Amino acid sequence: MTTIISSKTRKRIGTVAYYAVNVVLVIAFLVPFLWTLSTSLKPRDQVLTYPPRWIPRPLTFDNFRRLWNIQDGAYRRYTLNSLVVACTTTLLVVTLSTMAGYGFSRMEFPGKAVLFTILLSTMMIPYQSILVPLFVVMKKLGLLNTYWSMTIIYSTFQLPLSTFIMRNAFDSIPKALAEAAALDGSSSLTTFRKIALPLVGPGIATVVVLVFMWSWNEFLTALIFTTSQSLRTLPVGLSDFVANYTIDWNLLCAGGIYSSLPVMILFIFLQKYFVEAMTSGAVK
Amino acid sequence: MTGNASCRRAGANRKSSRLKARQALEGFAFVAPALILTLVFFIYPLINTVSLSFHDTNVVTGQMRNVGLKNYANLLRDSVFWKAAKNTTVYTLIVTPLIFIAAFILALLVNKDRPGVVFFRSVYFLPVVVSFVTASLIWKWMYNDLFGLINYMLMRVGLISRPVVWLGTETSAMLSVIAMVVWKTAGYSMVILLGGMKAIPNSVYEAASIDGASKWNTFWRITFPLLRPTFALALVLSVIGSFLAFDHFYVMTQGGPAHATETIVMWIYRNSFGYFKLGYGSAMSVVLLAFLVLLSTLQLKILRTDFEY
């Protein structure tokens, strides 16, 4: 009897300890975000106060307004650039990786295994090591300082993993389904569009999340390939702000919150796919 | 009779071979766009990195001159490159075990299904989805010497008596960036480890509990050894990622003070796109690439200890 009670108590203590540890960690993980959010919503004179104040009083969106209008709308321009690059890249990668994934999963052609291996093996090579010659290639093609250079490069870097994800997605569809369609005399393009494509929604969602997040956040390539200010993406613009507005922390924090908002919102609604996207590259 | 049958078979063969050719063509059409992009914008530049590393480029005329191994010889004498290599190695050696330990603790905490666990998991993963630039900005503000939260809190609990200029001295700058990276990436390693933990079938644990194994023993004798391949994977991914570190050092410290936080990729970037020494930048890229491919091969070797449940 006593042992039952003590084991029960021990269990309860364990539960309390479990939640205590998690709550402390959750606070530790969230503090940097909350502190930044708080700073971004404070009036200018309240940032440099000591001791720091957590709740902004009065609460103001003034910093976001300033951000929106600074340098004749430079930030609006960066937002547009980031949106164009991330969206076109996502669109292109989804299209090409779905096609290639289907080809590698469901079609027969000579050299299939070799070509797939070549495509996947580029994942072993960090893109950081080919940026210099890529710069030369883009210069020769006259694509420096265009959206095209960014979209093409980002798409190329994201294609192998996305194709891998899509091939796995198509692999999991029962073969009999496509065969039945083929017997009914539908062409491979129709089978692809009408039978296979509707069944790989989760795969496509994973690719969308992976590519959008990556292109939205990417910094080094954007820094190199957008030498003209009018083509800068948000991360490059933000890093520039950090260097130039060193003491205007309201504005900087507003910039940080603002430029992470799209991925944060996506994350809240599509968490499952984020985890899927981030780990799919790890289980090669 | 037989002639008729063989004739029919030949016809069928011709028909099926034509079908096969058509299928092959269609197959190629499906995979060609992805392959062409990869060929032109990845494999071609990759080969070009090597050839470019034997050349000097003239910034004004854009002309290339073959200089043989000069870039590689320069690399051996470049003290900043070696400092950057040392910094990057030190950074990797410190940050990797820290990320790993943090990730392992987090994974153990959120492995079991309990009320609220989904929320905890999302919070630990949240820093992974923001960019390194944003994360660096956030922490630069946290580390601010006069009005930053970190100095305030440490002084409040009495750990320090005067504000510390975290990003200003050689040792503290590196450690400060490392602390930020652990916060930013532990969630990523956590989900990889969680994947490994989920892959261990319940039957293994059931068998252990029938045999009367204690929780402690189950953890050290079953969970831990069975996770070995996942550990190796998480470790190597983190090592390679750390060797390519750029964004956070660029934003938080600009490589300073006195090149104390200069990383390899940052030095490649400065030489290639700051001083436009494209050949020299390529030579450094080749060295980095060779080193990392070696590491990846090591990864495959470690992972080959795979087993079936």
Hey, roughly how much beta strand do the residues of chain B contain?
A: under 5%
How many strands appear in the DSSP assignment of chain A? Answer: 0
Q: Give the low-pLDDT segments of chain B.
A: none
Largest sheet of chain B: 2 strands, antiparallel
Largest interface: A-B, 93 and 88 residues
Short structural summary:
The complex is a heterodimer of chains A (284) and B (309). By secondary structure, chain A is mainly α. Chain A is 75% helix and 0% strand.
Structure description:
- The complex is a heterodimer of chains A (284) and B (309).
- Chain A is mainly alpha-helical.
- Helix content of chain A is 75%, strand content 0%.
- Chain A contains twelve helices and no strands.
- Chain A has helices at residues 2-40, 62-106, 112-121, 131-140, 147-171, 175-183, 188-196, 201-217, 220-225, 234-244, 249-269, 271-280.
- In chain A, α2 crosses α5 (147-171) and α6 packs across α7 (188-196).
- The longest helix of chain A has 45 residues, at 62-106.
- Chain A starts with a helix and ends with a helix.
- Chain B is mainly alpha-helical.
- Helix content of chain B is 75%, strand content 2%.
- Chain B is built from 13 helices and two strands; from the N terminus they run αββαααααααααααα.
- Chain B has helices at 2-52, 70-77, 79-110, 117-129, 132-142, 149-156, 170-199, 202-210, 215-226, 228-243, 247-252, 264-274, 278-303; strands at 55-57, 64-66.
- Chain B has a two-stranded antiparallel ribbon.
- In chain B, a hairpin with a 6-residue loop joins β1 (55-57) and β2 (64-66).
- In chain B, α3 (79-110) packs antiparallel against α10 (228-243).
- The radius of gyration of chain B is 27 Å and the shape is flat.
- The model of chain B has no long low-confidence stretch (mean pLDDT 88).
- The chains are: A mainly alpha (284), B mainly alpha (309).
- Chains A and B meet through α1, α2, α3, α4 and α5 of A and α1, α3, α4, α5 and α7 of B.
